[in-house]
UniProtKB/TrEMBL annotation:
The lineage of its organism: Bacteria, Pseudomonadati, Pseudomonadota, Gammaproteobacteria, Pseudomonadales. It comes from Pseudomonas libanensis. It comes from the Bacteria. This is Uncharacterized protein.
């Protein structure tokens, strides 16, 4: 799993922008991944672990 920091979290739309720990472009965790992980209360600045699938999208997310 990779690690990153929550840059943006939208509680209404249920998505999060994650900045990878090693740098690079931010990634988006969408509603399905956030609901599956029960992370409805993420906070900006919180550290998370995540997996990226073959098309470059976050496929799984959890608290670090």
């Amino acid at each position: 799993m990779a690690r990153g920091t929550v840059l943006v979290f939208d509680k209404q739309q249920l998505y999060a922008q994650i900045q990878p720990e090693g740098g690079g472009e931010s990634l988006t965790a969408y509603r399905a991944e956030i609901e599956a992980a029960r992370l409805h209360d993420l906070q900006v600045g919180e550290r998370v672990n995540y997996d990226v699938d073959s098309d470059g999208r976050i496929s799984r997310i959890s608290r670090a």
